[in-house]
Amino acid sequence: MNSGETPPFGEGSGRPQPGEAPLVGRREALKSFSQATDAAVTRGFQFLTIVGEPGAGKTRLLAELTALTTGLGFTALSGRAAEFEQIMPFSGLVDALDDHLEARRDDLCERLGTAQARRLAAVFPALAAKMPDADDGADQDENADLSGMVRYRLYRALRQLIDELAHPGGLALILDDVHWADDSSVEFLDHLVRHPPRGRVLLAVAYRPAQAGPRLSALVMGAGARGRQVTVGPLTRAEAEELLGPGVNRTRGHALYEASGGNPLYLEALARMNRLDVGELPPTVRAALQVELGDLSPRSLLVAQAAAVTADEFEPALAAVAAQVSEGAALEALNELGARDIVRPAAAGRFRFRHPLVRQAAYESSAPGWRLAAHARLAGHLATLGAPATVQAHHFERAGSFGDRRAIATLVEAARRVAPQAPVTAAHWFRKALDLMPDEPATLEDRLELLMELSRAQSVSGRLTEGRDTARELLRLLPPDDHARRARAARICALMERQLDRPHEARALLLDELRRMPDPRAAIAVPLRMRLVAESMMRGEFRAAQAVLDLMPDSGDDWQPDLAAAVAALRPMPAYAAGRIPDALRHADAADRLISSALDEHLAEWLDAVAWLCWAETNMGRYPVALRHFERAAAVARSSGQTYILTNLLAGKAKTLLHMGRLPEALATIDESVEGARMLESGQQLVFALTQLCLAAAWTGDHDAGLRAGEEAVQAGVGAGEAWGDMARQARGVALVTAGRLEEGAEAIVDACSKFADSRLDRGTLVSSIELLAHAEAALGRPAGASAWADRAAALAHPDLPAFSGLIPLARAHALRAGEPAAAAALADEAASMLSAHERRVDAGRALLLAGLAYGNAGERNLARERLQEAATVFEACGARGLRAQVMREQRRNGVRVATAVQGTPGAAPYGLSPRELQIATLVVEGLTNQQIAEQLFLSVRTVETHLSHIFAKLGVGSRVGVATKLNRGS
Description:
Elements: H1 27-43, E1 46-52, H2 58-71, E2 75-80, H3 91-103, H4 105-112, H5 114-121, H6 125-128, H7 137-144, H8 149-166, E3 171-176, H9 183-194, E4 201-207, H10 214-217, H11 219-222, E5 227-232, H12 237-244, H13 250-260, H14 264-272, H15 285-294, H16 298-310, E6 313-314, H17 316-323, H18 327-339, E7 343-345, E8 351-353, H19 356-365, H20 368-385, H21 389-399, H22 405-418, H23 423-436, H24 444-460, H25 464-477, H26 483-499, H27 503-516, H28 526-538, H29 542-550, H30 561-570, H31 572-577, H32 581-597, H33 600-603, H34 607-619, H35 623-640, H36 643-659, H37 663-680, H38 683-700, H39 703-715, H40 723-738, H41 742-752, H42 763-779, H43 783-795, H44 807-816, H45 821-837, H46 841-857, H47 861-878, H48 881-893, H49 915-925, H50 930-937, H51 941-955, H52 960-970
């Protein structure tokens, strides 16, 4: 192991430095590196973590990895996060990529496209330097989006950039000291692991396990079969002796090993201090480094301390400002620091410390008062130079004094600048500004404004608890008689309590604030009463919600128009749940008129209420109207930064698209909803999103993804006793049925629907569930059971809800297919016509498929072929690959010649296989057994067997040999 974990800088410099000692030990680590690089070459994206204590040799190993990947033709780019810049967003990625991007800027911008290049320019100075001014509406829309989805789009742009950099030979992106990385960087890594690049990409991150957060530590598990972890432990005694060499006698070597604990950095730091006896050495490397720094001349030590204050990678001129010496004197001191290997040259005339621990030791060796003054000097100098507020903020937060207006203004400007891409950093700087602001009457309005922005940044970044606490602080500062603003603050706070899965606290807060009001029925109390209505509906207590609504007028003389629209938006759902369908439709039409005429800025305040109208419309089968409202509300949520509403709206939009048979759009929408919910860290919103992902994946034919999403939604541990928890369990049941696990799926659906006795689920979901249960019973050879379910479906029919009417003849067709196929075919034709007329295209296709099967059973071969072809056309248009494959099998049985492979998008898996099915089929070709496949992919053997049955069906083969033959012939 070499001295001080020599870090690689930039591309191509990861090899050991000239004169550096050879690597000692670490055979298992190097073996893992070789396996990971081979896998990246043959299978694409691989994720590698290197974990170990400070000084264990992680960076030295990364140098070996850089050399290995470079030798294999990869572009190796290395960077590291820094302790004193850990609040700066994406600093490690910038360190790794920026110089490379500068060299390829024009080519990359052309390949990425203007929109993606602009997003990336917000992160990488190399791209921002030559980015032309925005001149189109799309850029303005992007800048106006204050929601957390901005960074989701940024993450997709970063992933696309990595794919571009991986072409053609592959990319090794190597990040060191990731325990210092900001939250946005870790969030992006999590995104990349769950949405891996397509090309030959090896992502390696090194960090200290004791200082890593849970999300960082869990990344390797999230990578599944693509991930592996290398643990870098202490050297053995024999390896330590090899590292020290023959110049250290056995007695001293033994003492050095005991003092260092086998840590290579500590061992070499102790060994370098030959003027001391081992017994005099302190037990920690910090003390050892302090002694090393103590050997410097006074001027060089001063410049080292100033450089530590300046930045992880610093310019000599700035270090000179911090040290209060001339630039020439600073350069002279840097000569000594370089000769002593305290600092090393970096890119573009800059320097950086040998190791973060060296910088930390230099920083802590200076007096606290001197450090404060040095940060102040740098802050003033950078302000004079006109440096961006984001560069100045690092120093102002450390040097700003209480009441310092310039420091406060700089921190606020920096926070507002980074809020869309890095809300954690924004929240940090908003809080620092508030800490510097005097708590006095003259600053009260400014404090209230900053608290509101702080609360928003915290909630968007997923720190809902902090956001809730900030909202409570806002309530504390507001005067008791400022009922209007207190009502708005209490409503926001209650919303966050709900997102934190604390509905009882939300309700108590609302009731407490209402009691404070002199007139709880006044207009200013309406927002709080609306939240009470929403809380009741979330719990399925629609009678309680209706009771509150009955006491609220439709409008008032002192109401603003937007408030009337918000109240109107709440009225349809309780009426629909109570079975008062005409009232629900009348309320929905009235709300539609008010909301359609309202301005976006008016709707922004009441999106939580508008969301209830959107869901009511889709629950009643009014899909075009629902989609229009969902899309508009989502656009307003983006522009106003209301991510906690946006994820819910996207989930509802996906559900609507799913019913309409627009499955690719539904999957794209729900992907964004899931990402937003994960970033928000709200169990409720994640369950909403995963429920729709489960259904969309199931009907698309990706049964593995559907079941995985359903299991995660059910196991989230939130939503018990509320309708959305039942929705998750019902979706999982649907996924089980579509995957062919009929008994298990039917049982799950019946349980989720509370055995259809006082269920919390909406009428449309219940009718859909019953139709699927009839299908399962018929498929299991139990027509009587299917008939009983069809009767139940008919009992739920309502003439004013025509979107679901077609499911009733479809349920009856299931029951009659075995005994009366001609009658079943006629009913299925009727169902297909009714379902198609109301845009339930997937269900219409299923009805056509059933009609084809029934006509075939009845001996009507030509009609069977016609219906099957119609079903194939519907499923192809919808993107329902699994159902399309089923139709193809039935067409072959009816003598129709069809193409073997399902046509799809370029790069899609062959023969209509899902990505997981293709993965398993490939391993079958390689000769792996089911047990071996299960172990490699972290699946159960039963899941592998289920996938194989689908693979056999889609490929039209009956054995593993057939799979190999088919795939080899196709390739």
